[in-house]
Amino acid sequence: MKIIQSFVILICLTLLQQGISQNAFPPAYDIVTDTIGTITLPATNWQYSEDRAATWTIDSVRQLPVTDKFHLNTPEKSDNNDPMYNYWVRFRLKNTMNREAHIALQFLVGFQSDMYLFESNGKEHHLVNGVSTPWSKKDGHSLKNPWGSGGYTAVSLLAGDEWVVYMRSNSKLGAGVMPSRLLIRLYSMDKMNSELRKEEDSNYIQSIGF
What's the predicted TM-score (pTM) here? Predict the structure, then answer.
């Protein structure tokens, strides 16, 4: 009888560990360069969760039971044909270089996009962008080319520093995003500044033409 009980306990612990591992925070993405241009985070380094009622806050997504709803963008999830209108994404970034890393984080496309950055010392940054956000209240920059969809913001991570990032997209009044098309990207700040200067030059030339 004791053998059976021990076996049952072992199975329960195994299932519990599997459940925890599936919903645990994904491993940090190591930043080894900030001059390569565009980097797409591997699917194993970020998670997302749909917020159908658009009621979650940054506090709620960092606590149970919501924190357990995040999952990887696995093939079975990618086959989902239902568009998401409100969703959250979370990931971690670690600067493994021996100098400060200068990168640009892209806002999620949405009528309102929120980005919450938590430094290793606990300092929090809340940035806002999106179509419905008044220009005077937008954080970061926006480009007309596909790279700038949703806008982006410049951040600097000290050597060895690790940040936690949460992103929220609210598009309940517009087109939803298919899970299979959901990608998280980082950009070289130098590359983004170069693209921004090109756009400004283009706008200036067009203004002269008009």
Answer: 0.78
